[in-house]
Every structure is written in structure tokens, then in C-alpha cells.
Amino acid sequence: MSTAKKNRPPLLSRWFHKLRSRQTPKGFTPIDEFHPEDVFIVGYPKSGNTWFQNLISGLAYGVDSRLSPSLLVNDLVPDVHFNEFYRRYSTPMFFKSHSLPRPEYRRVVYLVRDGRDAMVSYFHYLEAIEKKQLDFLALVKTGLSLLPCKWHEHVEAWNRNPYAAQILVIKYEDLIRQPVHELERFCEFTHIQRERGFLETVADAANFSNLRGKEARLGFGWPDIWPEDKFFFRRGVAGSHKDEMPAEVLAAFMGEAETTLRLNDYLLDHHAEALAVA
Predict the structure, then answer these.
(1) Are 226 and 129 in contact (CB under 8 A)?
(2) Count of C-beta atoms within a 10 Å radius of residue 157
(3) For the domain that residue 237 is a member of, what is the CATH number?
(4) 42: Cβ–Cβ under 8 A, 6 or more apart, which residues?
(5) How far apart are CA 158 and CA 164, in angstroms?
């Protein structure tokens, strides 16, 4: 077996290498056909993308995130990596994506999360879907299985914004601290008018406890991929790397990502500072 085939992530590869396998069903649109007004919710994996997908289903369509199945949320706010086609319920439509900058992404909400926390969450996610133990240190060093790339490469690419998209940056940590304020910023960016009381209801319905509770009742909606004994909404906190990222993994990550963390206003604690200069 070739090295390329041996190292290819078997389940994740279809996210970024999807081929259209059949004709477009009536009433649907191919997932790679968009309107200039459409809005793309983009972020590195495990940066709050699915959480924000639930928030938008409530904000744009009035769906109660405590009750809505994952398949309904994905129908309203399509994931470009898992859907071949989508129904256009409105213009603009809202899409979830982990992609690097693309010329057709004209309006982007970029979700950024402390890369140390994102990598911890991504590591647990990969172990869950690949159903085996992974080497966290090797994962960070080599970048194998990390799609579409390493965290700092993704953030730096969107910071450069090579196709001059309109971009609203929302931090995962700010979304935790002040979800209604961040939703107000989102409404201003997308020209959606909603009362503050409505935004409060949407934010509360899609809080971590409610999403975890829904997952416990209904499952996550990926019966062929996601294991029944694992939670997709695993922890949902800021600073998880402090008790979940081993020192040697943190040192390897900081060796590449320290500058990107600083440029995005992520303060480094003394332990991280020491590792970064060691």
C-alpha cells in the first residue's frame, strides 16, 4: 500500500474531496452553487461551527434548538462537506464550512477559537470517528488527519483574506461569554432584524446544556459515523487545553502557532510562555 493511501483519513477525506455522484434532484441545488448574497459560517474544525449552525437555525428560521434534530438543522444550514445538494429556503442562504478561502465565499462569518482548545477537541473528535487511539503528539507535529490543514495555517489564510471577502470575525470565547451581543453583531452583518428578546431566546435554546441534552435524547444524527457512546458536544468550555493537552503536545503546537495565537489576541499563560521559549 502506498504511503498516501496508508495515511489517508478514511472518514474525513470525503469532506473535502466530494464528487457529485448523481443528477440533481428536483427542488434541490448542487452544494457548490451559491448566490453572491449567501453567508458562509467558516471555522477550523471544533471552533463552534455546529453550535453556530444551531444558533442560525433558530435566529433565521425560528427553530427551537432544544428540539430540532441534527438532520433538520443541517437541512436549514447546510454543511458543504456532507451535503451533495441543498434546498434553497431563502436568499441569503447560510452554509457551514471548514474550507480555506475560496473566491465564491463573498460573505463570511469566521469563527476563531483558541487553537490549543480547538486541537484538544479535534483530537477527541478524530478518535471517536476513527474508533481507535491516536498519537496526539504525532497528530500535532505531522498534521496527518487534520483537514483541511493545521490550525495556524487555517487562521492565517483567513486573516490574509486573499479574495477580499466581507468578513465578520466571532470568537468562540466571546460567544460563550456574551452570546446575545455576538448574535447582534451577526444580525448587523447579515442585515437581519431581530428583537433582543428573540435573540436571548435563541441563545438560551442553543446553549451547551440544551444541545448536550438533545444529543442524549436524539443522538447526533450520524448513525454510520458517530459512535453512540460518545458525545459530539463533549465539553464546551474555554481553556480546556490547560487540563487536557499534555506538556509535550503543547510545546509542539506552540512551536508553530504561538505567533498566530498572539496576533489573534489569545494571551498565553506562564506555563505556555515557558514552553514556547524552551
Answers:
(1) yes
(2) 15
(3) 3.40.50.300
(4) 49, 97, 98, 99, 105, 108, 109, 110, 111, 158
(5) 10
Per the structure block, which three cell numbers stand in for 191?
442585515
Give the cell for residue 102: 475560496
C-alpha cell at 128: 471517536
DSSP assigned state of 122: H
Instruction: Indicate the residue type of 57.
Output: S
Number of structural domains found in the chain: 1
Longest Cα–Cα distance of the chain, Å, equals: 60
Q: Where are the alpha helices (DSSP H) in the chain?
A: 3-7, 13-16, 49-61, 70-76, 115-130, 136-142, 151-160, 172-177, 179-190, 196-205, 208-218, 241-244, 247-263, 270-277
pLDDT digits (tens, 9 = 90+) for 184-214: 999 999 999 999 999 999 999 999 889 888 7
Is this prediction's pTM over 0.85? yes
Q: Which residues span the domain enclosing 79?
A: 3-277
> Which amino acid, residue 243?
D
Output the pLDDT for position 7: 40
- Burial degree of 17 (CB within 10 A; 0-12, 13-18, 19+): exposed
| DSSP-derived secondary structure letter, 101 | P
CB atoms within 10 A of CB 203: 20
